[in-house]
Design a protein that fits this description.
globular; alpha/beta; 399 residues
Length: 399
Amino acid sequence: MQNRPVIVAVGRTKFGEHYGKEPEKLIEEAWLAASNECNLERKNLETCYMSDYFLLITNKLGLEEGFLSELTELHVPMEVTRSFSAALKTACHAIQAGVYSTVLVGGIEKMTDRLDKIRDDLMLLEDPWSYYAGGTPEANHELLLRAYIKKHCINGENLEKLYNALAQVAIKNHANGAKNPYAQYQRKISLENVLSSRKAVNKALGLFDYAPITDGATALILTSEEVAKKMDVTPVYIYGYDSATDYLDYSARDELSHFVAAQIAMKKALKTSKLNAWDINLWEVNDQSTMMELVSLEDLGYCASGTAWKSIAESSPNSKGCYEINGKELYVNMDGGLKADGNPLGAAGGAQIYEIFRQLTGKADQRQVTIDGTTPKYGGSLEFEGFGTKAYVNILGRE
């Protein structure tokens, strides 16, 4: 990749319910954390890209770009996308094209302010046809699980192992979230907690299988390599990034047990980065449900189709908190994932990048991963818009 984009600093807020905080206070906190990390002032920013899904609805804002201009007291070009990865992709294009050399990328969401209003919007965002049929935001996750079970002919004792493997995903992510001071949920859960929550609603997936509703903000500063070399920072380079899109109507897709968009985005990002999947041992994936993390292990190419639940089941006693697949270690959602860290839609992808950046620079504290005694060399993130409708894969490296 020529003119490779470089992340020089990251910042975020604690995720959770911030009813008493205005959105500008959240994004300002994230931006200041990033700017203080690299001693960059507002006047050095050449453009800003921000992401959110529902800020216009939840907080009755006008043009978000104007809101960001007021906050930064800048008149530079600004644009708003839905997902953080979409904003990051746009920023990467601008850096590579040589149009800008210093860019602020931010994400924010205030979902708890008006959850009663946006619950319908969440379903319409994922799949309007399921919504009109009476579906809930959780409905497609159950359908994904059923399609997976049917396609791979999982039954009897293996079916129970699959359900327990999904529970282990939640247990792992809550254990990781307990080590993350920014996480919405910083407590461990047990197998009994997960199974009891399913039994309470008489469903295959229960309360502890889903990510929560969350408020929060994230930010990063992206520069060109030339600018990064002049700064007193430990840079993280973007080796590859790409995206793909699938049908909005989940039931109309050719493949119901996997996310084709994630598979395509991964192949394209690997091609750009000139890496293979197992060069990357560290991932932040979109675990809006435990089922989505399981499927992601297959869509990213680490497990053969229909086998990820076996790898999870075999890895569950692992004290390192990683998956052991074919004798190799794979670290996933070390910050707790959406499941425990939280899921403020427009900012969630930024939290993924924040964690990868911290891990690659050796600053992840209790969560720090070591591979063969050293910090990881590469890390990746997988973010979705909707229910697998759009998938973004970002591959980062520390060299």
